[in-house]
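> forwarded from #structure-qc
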């Protein structure tokens, strides 16, 4: 993950937090807080690259219209027509993300030409700033897409009613999660009509602690882990043992970096009394693949469980394997529609399905004894190694995959 734009967005939100809290203290109303959060979120997107702002304004305006169409599909339209409308809404919502992931170069070219023109037309000065912005694709689009789908599907299921334009803008431009998630749900950030002037002291304290923890992870631990991993790998004479050490260090870097951004988002939200669900739960301490995936990027896993695993019948023994396969493939391809992520998904699908199959064969005749400490530690290291082995697929060009993994085999390219 590129830490610069992502860290800049969340850091700027934290810097602007005193202003947001002052506005809330002066006018402790839901509409005031929603409006101020929306403006700050729009500003953060603008600072990343001005052309992103008209794109996201159009995207969330479209979602506002689609939520009413989804409500009509739930309440007024019946039968096949309702299913067609629902499917069409889901396709429209997914389209920008899918097109970007399938055809990144043409999408970026179209996106830049279209929305940069909007900026140039409004202001030559803004257009000049937009040209030098280093980011070329809409930041956080995958997260925004799944946030939007979660809202729309819940409206279709009548778990939520359509929300106001201001509430939708607040949800869409919620600053702490714009760049690197988590994949929040509207219920997590929904505000009461009347608020206290200040968040609870316990929220402020917890928020500051999580921000400090996230900053240490992202700015210190992740930096050194990445450096050590790269130094080992680029030494040119690294044997298979050193290559494995580099892979394990990179696996730890990936977790520390990603969970650090989640800590920052959770902490920044908590400063305002907004309690986001946890996104990581010590995944590398888990003892099997299923427990790992229940603890890693939990907001994405929960989303896929709700909308892929359960609808495919994953709670039934006869359907659990096919549901597991499509769930993990959705998680993989959400990151990128690439052969690397297909390999990543297949790799984890094999382990998850194998674990479920073996677990189902154990039966329940005898009570399960708790593993000894040394055995739990060994299992946890096995999970850590199994996951770390797949993490480089996020960064490798697909044509480099065979030679990369050959270095991990004694007698291969490794010495």
């Amino acid at each position: 993950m590129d830490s610069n734009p992502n860290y800049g967005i969340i850091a700027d939100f934290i810097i602007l937090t005193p202003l947001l809290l002052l506005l809330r203290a002066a006018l402790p109303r839901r509409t005031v807080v929603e409006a101020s959060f929306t403006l700050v979120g729009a500003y953060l997107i603008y600072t990343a690259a001005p052309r992103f702002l008209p794109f996201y304004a159009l995207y969330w305006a479209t979602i506002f219209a689609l939520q009413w169409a989804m409500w009509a599909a739930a309440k007024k339209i019946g039968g096949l027509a309702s299913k067609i409308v629902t499917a069409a809404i889901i396709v429209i919502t997914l389209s920008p993300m899918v097109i970007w992931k399938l055809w990144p170069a043409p999408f970026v070219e179209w996106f830049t030409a279209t929305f940069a023109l909007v900026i140039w037309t409004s202001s030559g000065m803004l257009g000049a700033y937009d040209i030098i912005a280093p980011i070329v694709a809409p930041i956080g689009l995958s997260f925004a897409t799944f946030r939007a789908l979660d809202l729309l599907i819940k409206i279709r299921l009548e778990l939520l009613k359509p929300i106001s334009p201001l509430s939708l803008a607040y949800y869409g431009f919620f600053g702490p999660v714009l760049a690197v998630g988590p994949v929040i749900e509207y219920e997590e950030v929904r505000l009461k009509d009347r608020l206290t002037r200040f968040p609870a002291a316990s929220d402020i304290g917890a928020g500051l602690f999580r921000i400090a923890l996230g900053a240490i992870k992202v700015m210190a631990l992740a930096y050194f882990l990445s450096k050590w991993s790269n130094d080992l790998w680029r030494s040119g004479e690294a044997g298979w043992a050193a290559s494995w050490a580099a892979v394990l260090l990179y696996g730890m870097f990936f977790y520390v970096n990603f969970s650090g951004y989640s800590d920052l988002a959770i902490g920044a939200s908590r400063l305002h009394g907004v309690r986001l669900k946890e996104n990581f739960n010590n995944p590398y301490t888990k003892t099997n693949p299923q427990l790992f995936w229940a603890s890693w990027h939990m907001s994405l896993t929960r989303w896929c469980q709700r909308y892929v695993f359960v609808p495919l019948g994953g709670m039934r023994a006869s359907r659990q394997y096919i549901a597991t396969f499509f769930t993990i493939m959705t998680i993989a391809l959400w990151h990128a529609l690439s052969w690397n992520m297909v390999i990543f998904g297949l790799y984890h699908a094999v382990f998850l399905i194998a674990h479920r199959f073996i677990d189902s064969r154990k039966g329940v005749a005898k009570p399960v004894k708790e593993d000894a400490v040394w055995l739990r530690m060994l299992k946890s290291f096995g999970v850590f190694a199994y996951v770390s082995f797949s993490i480089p697929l996020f960064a490798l060009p697909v044509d480099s995959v065979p030679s990369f993994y050959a270095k991990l085999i004694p007698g291969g390219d490794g010495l």
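QC bot note: The chain has three domains: 3-198, 202-270, 283-406. The chain has a mean pLDDT of 89.
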